[in-house]
Amino acid sequence: MTTVRSAAPDELLELRGEFPILERSTYLVSNSLGAMPRATAARMAEYADTWNELGVRAWASEWWDLPIRVGNEVAPLFGARDGEVAMVPNVSTAQAAVVSAVKFEAPRNVLVTTELDFPSVRYVYERLATRFGARLVVVPSDDGITVDQGRLLEAIDEHTALVAVSHVLFKSAFVMDAASICKRAREVGALVSLDAYHSVGVLPVDVHEL
Question: Which of 21, 38, 164, 209 gives 193 a disulfide partner, CB atoms 3.0 to 4.6 angstroms apart?
Answer without folding.
Answer: 164
